[in-house]
Amino acid sequence: MRTHVITLGCQMNEYDTLTIRSELVAGGHDLVDHPSDAELILLNTCAVRGKPVEKVVSLLGGLRRERRAGRDVAIGLMGCLAQLDEGRDLADKFGVDLLVGPGAITEIVPAIEALERGRESRRRRARVDRLAFRADLVDHLTPPPPRGTLTAYLTIMRGCDHHCTYCIVPQTRGPEVSRPLAAIVHEAEAMRAQGVEEVFLLGQNVNSYGRDDASLPSFAGLLRTVAEIGFPRVKFTTSHPMNFTSDVIDAIAGTPNVCDYVHLPVQSGSDRVLRRMAREYRRERYLEIVRELRVKVPDVVLSTDIIVGFPGETEEDFAQTLSLYDEARFDAAYMFAYSARPGTPAHARFADQPREVKSERLGRLVERQKHWSLEGNRRFEGREVRVLVKEIGRDGAHAVGHSDQHHTVLVPAAQVRRMGLHAVRVEHATPHALYGSVVGATSVGVALPLAS
Ligand code: 5AD
Ligand code: SF4
Fold first, then answer.
1. Among 19, 123, 240, 432, whose Cα sits 20 to 30 Å from the Cα of 334?
2. For residue 339, which atom of ligand 1 is closest to its CA?
3. Tens digit of pLDDT for each residue in 294-350?
4. Which residues line ligand 2 (CB under 6 A)?
5. pLDDT in tens, 11-36
6. How many CB atoms lie within 10 A of CB 229?
7. Mutate to test the pocket of ligand 2, among 46, 49, 155, 160 (most ligand atoms within 8 A of CB)
8. Coil/strand/helix, residue 121
């Protein structure tokens, strides 16, 4: 079937989409770039907050209108939403033909074949049921991205063993399973051979790598092994403060191509709220990790995730989050208003806060973050950073890339002939980006067709 895949949500979904695409091609299906050319549209969905679910509802609504206007198109729901009752209900409501949970993506081809058989017998909407989580997915080898891809994601583990009370992920992605070392190394080597310069190791909690299997190295060991494959850059996400041990910090400090960039979600600065969230650390432990990181990795850029307006969060609790900001000095943050997710313990146990309380606190936090992002970025003014230039920006005047420390960096487009690594002198910092000039290309790179 001519298939178009739409990917929403996190990097894990982007990586899963690569697996889905390779399975489809191997199964004899054509991938099409435009949804209007497709016989099957697959939505790889996210369910972590209400907003991404609303996005799916709006896409499904659009497809239902097209069908009512006479278009013959099959619809598949994949990703986290497909694993939940919420997804099943939406599938019923919008006539979804295919439901495949994130643990079953290697089953997509037989599921489509079953769907096609249903079509031949004119049993349209004969939905293939949701599939169970399949553990063999961890052994599955995803082919490398196309030549010319400079940054690639590599999933090292799936699932999550934590039970943060606000979070739906343990239900959609199941318990933690580490991928075999050989599979990771195989994929990483294939990526490097394709010219990938930056590999992003992915997992819900990368620091837990190997804890489910004594024959595997620890995450710090894995970092060193992947670094030896020769990528100029190794990055990873997401870390959990609970398992963020000194040996991981030492691996970052002692391995030059493991980047000085750490994404370490804190979620709240109040111990009372952390307890209600069932986060397994307290404010002081988090700050201890930050201090150790800043001492051992002086250039480290630290980003975080924060939820404001968690049920029962008082003004005093929120003040604790603001003061944690001033101590941790996050360079960047993904800030969210709490979104009650059906099926989570917090949804069952606690009453939601008024929307205005959440948005007012979010506004204050965003202001505080801007201040610390600007301070953090200014540390790099006048310095040389290494930037992986990937594209021409929307304004056409700048080329855009990321530094080793994961800042967004913009340079004049006229200074760039090829995508790839460049040495850049930083001239100016804003809260969101660094602006500078190219002082030299540091890798062979890939031709940049849009550069003048
Ligand atoms: N409401 C708001 N934010 C959430 N996150 C996870 N669940 C929720 C929720 N119910 C945020 C957390 C997590 C990030 C991926 O999404 O901050 O780290
Ligand atoms: Fe969700 Fe907590 Fe697991 Fe992260 S660690 S995926 S927030 S349950």
1. 19
2. 1
3. 999 999 999 999 999 999 999 999 999 999 999 999 999 999 999 999 999 999 999
4. 160, 162-164, 167, 169-170, 204-205, 240
5. 999 999 999 999 999 999 999 999 99
6. 17
7. 160
8. coil
